[in-house]
Amino acid sequence: MKGPLFYAKILLFGEYGIIKDSKGLAIPYNSYQGALIKSDKISEIAKDSNLKLDKYYAYLSNLKTDLVVFNLQEFRKDLDEGMYFDSSIPQGYGVGSSGALVASIYDKYASNKITVLENLTRAKLLKLKEVFSLMESFFHGKSSGLDPLNSYLSLPILINSKDNLEPTGIPSQKEGKGAVFLLDSEIIGETEPMVSLFMNKMKNEGFRKMLNEDFAKHTDACIEDFLHGNVKSLFGNVKQLSKVVLENFKPMIPSAFHKVWQHGIETNDYYLKLCGSGGGGYILGFTKDFNKTKTILKDYKLELVYRF
Prior knowledge:
CATH topology of the largest domain: Ribosomal Protein S5, domain 2
GO molecular function, one term: kinase activity
Order of helices and strands: EEHHEHHHEEEHHHHEEHE
Keywords: Kinase, Transferase
CATH architecture of the largest domain: 2-Layer Sandwich
Structural class: alpha+beta
Shape: globular
Largest sheet: 5 strands, antiparallel
Radius of gyration: 19 Å
Protein name: Mevalonate kinase
């Protein structure tokens, strides 16, 4: 048995802001994927995954909700036969490793599931997001449900607000010099402590004001520019966003990258922003000249996401 593939995701814009109801834009990232597998040859990694799925099975068995029903008998049988989640998605990197797992479990075991092939009304999208939020809370304590939604649909999703989501198209890639890229911090990040830190910061009136005004304004402008292919304007807004994040989200940026972040803003060679909750994992970068940026950041691992 090998289940369908579910991809990683990248939240291009909107990290933290979407917790507080501002805009976001998430896209599938097909370089990494995962699938449910049953095999006779079980490795140590597969055994470990099977044990974790066993705990997840217990969590879903005790879930009190009218939103979704799972075929738990089949899930139990597959686990007993050694099923595991075979994934290349790095964990703790902000690219949706648990989201892909949740999407694969929903796809295989949810009764009366909403499928990608039907007309995805806003009501259906919100229901899916709610179901995925419940399912993914096992991993993070609190989840928006967006990562599994993105992985399940394998479509770019525009988040207008908590109750207003829509699949969207993004401009096709061009063979230009510019790029969106991932910078590997080589540090594992944990979502839960970062979100707790953010929630504590939200108690501060000045921080809330910054989030509702500066952060939301630049995030919304970046999303508008990206979706409409306004590359010149996009870089101006990403620079402003990069500054706001460096000034106000420093604890979420690994300290070894504060200078690298600042250097990009000062030279305009590239701009960095958080990818997911931060604290490690990937950092998202935007550059007008990817080859030049690769030379400047030659000591780091970079991955290409999208070309302008």
